[in-house]
Amino acid sequence: MTSTTAETSAPLSEQRSKTPRRARRRGENTLAGSLASHGILIVASVIALFPIAWLVYLSLGPDTDDYLHPGGIWDKMTFDNYTFVLQHTQFFDWLKSSLVVTLGTTAIGVLIAATTGYAVSRMRFPGYKKFMWVLLVTQMFPVAVLMVPMYQILSDLQLIDNYFGLILVYCTTVIPYSAWLLKGYFDTIPFEIDEAGRVDGLTPFGTFFRLILPLAKPGLAVAAFYNFLTAFSEVAFASTFMLSDDKYTLAVGLQSFVSEHDAQRNLMAATAVLIAIPAAVFFYLVQKNLVTGLTAGGTKG
Amino acid sequence: MTVAIDRATGKRRGDREPKPGPAGRLRRGYQKHWYAYVMIAPVAVVLGVLVLYPLVYGLYLTLTDANSLNTARTIGVNHIDATYKFIGLDNYADILWGPTAYDRFWSHFIWTIVWTATCVALHYGIGLGLALLLNQKLRGRTLYRLILVLPWAVPTFVTVFGWRFMLADGGIINSALDALHLPSPQWLEDTFWQRFAAIMVNTWCGVPFMMISLLGGLQAIDASLYEAAEMDGASAWQRFRFVTLPGLRSVSSTVVLLGIIWTFNQFAVIFLLFGNTAPDAQILVTWAYYLGFGQQPRDFAQSAAYGILLLAILIVFTSFYRRWLNRNEQQLAI
What we know:
A: mainly alpha, B: mainly alpha
């Protein structure tokens, strides 16, 4: 409903502004105002882009100290760093670990969080408020509180240095926020749809799976995106719980790369760029839904 | 908009339903709740097993003197049993008012508060400004939005890495400052500039989330409110003050709370920017991690005790925050 109100207002004001001396439409800027807006947005965009673009640029310099005199890179740009990283390091092992852990977390996290988000959105069961409070408090757990005991527990279960162990750990951070996010999204889906489903003889589960889930795709995309990014860029747990270097995730791999090949900053830069690519691709795939999802549900009350 | 708020609080549901008799109500209630409990069961189980149990265990550890030398461990084929002992609240006493408590805890505590307040203020301020700009009818705003969200899309450890190149002694930032004949600080060595750099990088990472959330909130404000305000002759500032800000209230209170929680616990930025090289720029979370995993012997008990203290601070803060919101009749979107 939110986006439609914004859109319908445009034709309304257009009709009104058909009076001979055309008044400035609402939301339309004066020339100076729109120049200023563009100016600020361009500056902000440059600031947002620059560190990433700079990293890409540095990764093309063949020598280790090129980042100190970047002007020289322009004349001797090469993809040598990339070929070296792909051929002579464990990049693909790390990529595999990252994908296993990240996709596992995303799938499990979204699935579990979706039913919960639906339940807290539609049903007022006793203990509802306390449950929401627990979801919020779980957001607050600093790494240090859980890491030590989790390390002990996982090593008792022999899940240290194991993908599944890491997925479980990530689920604890990812699920509460996803459930929260999805609750917000489900709130925006008209309750009449549930009622229609019930009239047609569907159980709440049936309503949820056959009517609500298909409608909630943008919300699910946002949750998936959040889960993916959290799992993909987590460092503390991954570097503590993954011990053998062929099971490192990319985040840990890059760290180990830093200490082992400290002088070869050009290679590190290339690795960093290679790592950013899957995330950027994933982001591109969900971005259409991302804004709709966050706009409609997300954090709205 | 009002409809949406009512839905979130569930009031409308209650009003709308026909009132059945007590027996029917009980039966229906049971039916409904049965489904609800089944649906939240997976999360309840996951949280119970993976959060509650470790939490209790961690709480117990804080009452002992466990470290990596006296906990149970397996070296090769030999299993060594745990030898740590129960010492009560000594860890907390030592952290809070033991000798050198100021250097170990309170200085980090103060810096953590400053860090959180500054970062969240910058996130919110810049995020709101950009969201307002993007909410206008503007050529190319989709492209702007896409670019501005980018810092969020790239994993933190990659961006922080890029920033380290830029902030290095001979990096682009200092070269640029030199070229402008400005002093070029030692970003990664000097305490003040380390802190400055950490805030700068974290702001860069955190603005997109605020911007997108607030943009969502802005688009949810009913356009007719603006038209009404305009007809009443409200100036741009008055429209912002009396329509936009109240309309953003529930979004704001939620994202600010989340922002505070996340920034307070922000591990990656400081850890990756400095590693263990900057004791004075560590916030409590990274400091606790350092105690538990960054030194030898690893001090598990103290690390966990820091964690519990952090959690306590956040819970107390959130309780007050919610009470304050309730007094102002604002909604937290949960």
